[in-house]
Amino acid sequence: MVRILGGAISATARQRCNNKGAMQAMVGGVLTDDSVDDSLEQASNQSFQGLVGIITQGQQAGVFREGEADELALTAWSVVHGFAMLASTGSLEHRAANRDAKLALAQRVAGNLLNGIARG
Q1: CATH code for the domain of 19
Q2: Helices 38-60 and 2-18: crossing angle, nearest 10°?
Q3: Residue 89 to residue 40: CA distance in whole angstroms
């Protein structure tokens, strides 16, 4: 389950980084809610619900902690979107200068999300 969620997070970050215009439109405040294409909104909702499903299955398997799956998914979703926005605006160039470096950084960030940053 952890690998599945990590893969989903990385795939989402990759997709967002590959489509800068859509990323900036979705989270950069460029478009108003009523000007967002319905298919883009539907794809976004499906992706989020897929993330909720992965977390729910992981909770049932005892892999992920208890809690509202929607809220846990929102945490992951926020990290992915924040990362993708930073990548799409060039704010990560000092850490990752090319696409492959950005994707590797996205995987490490996803790992930090999954493992937490608190000392256990």
Answers
A1: 1.10.357
A2: 160
A3: 20
Number of other residues whose CB lies within 10 A of the CB of residue 59: 16
State whether the Cα torsion 8-92-101-109 is positive or negative.
negative
Rounded CA separation 63/73 (Å): 14
pLDDT digits (tens, 9 = 90+) for 20-41: 555 555 555 554 556 567 787 7
Tokens of 76: 């992951």
Asked whether residue 18 is assigned to any structural domain, the reply reads: yes
Question: Contact, 72 vs 64, CB < 8 A?
Answer: yes
The C-alpha torsion from 50 through 91 and 30 to 83, rounded to 10°, is: 10
Domain of residue 96 covers 2-115
Amino acid type, 80 = V
Q: Structure pTM? A: 0.73
Positive or negative, the CA dihedral 26, 27, 29, 30 is: negative
**53 domain-assigned:** yes
